[in-house]
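Predict the 3D structure for this chain.
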Amino acid sequence: MARSVCAYCKSPETPTREHLWPASLHSRLAAANKQTSNAFWLARLQKEISNEPQIRDVCAQCNNVVLSELDAYICRLFDRTLVYIPDQHASVTFEHDYHLLKRWLLKLCFNSARIHNSRDLYALEAMLSYILGKDNSLGKTVQLFVQLSYPEEIPEEDFGENAPSERPQFFRPTMNRVGHIFFRVHGVGQKLLRAVHLRSFTFFLAFFKPGEARAVSDDFAEHFCRQSRAILLRPSQPKVELLCNGMGAWSSFKGSRGNQLVFDDDA
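Done. Predicted structure below.
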């Protein structure tokens, strides 16, 4: 088999298949939702596909050892916490390993960026040493936020011809998704963030330039948390209390499918 350069370690190795979503995580989601068939939304095609997207550019060492350990962690976290869907305004204790969580989220986003040839691929590629667990200090250039979404009533105007007779109908955050959001600050500009939705939990990744002033990221976090009701996660706080009052599941779903999920801070 031909050898090529691994997307992660950059070594010339025989490539193996890397799933966008770990099969072990997807099987957990299917079991939680009692699914009988697979469906994956692929943004670049703007349609659902039945086969999970894969990338064939990762060496066996990275795929089966380093990245597999990150997948194993997120599955444990899913079983312990992420599988549950809280009601609106419910309080949730979130215990996590900050670096394992952020490294896995960045790994997922890097895979997605390569599939879609995304505009932020360069920023994710710059995080490879951190993703592989070789340089935790590099992770300081990325802020990690978490927000909880809640079951939301579907508005009447959003029902199609096959609308159910019973009302109201509530949409629950039962899916896993990865994509982008834009956050606009009045008089400053807009910033592109990565968003990873794991059922009720939405994680946001904000990227900053190496050496950028701390005041810049602090100011951004203040604006973003106020507008989105997200919480900034920190390595020093492995346990945080979250309130399920972020974005309604239906609003989040509609915005992500149209690639128009935008937070706009006018303050």
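Residues 4-265 form one domain.
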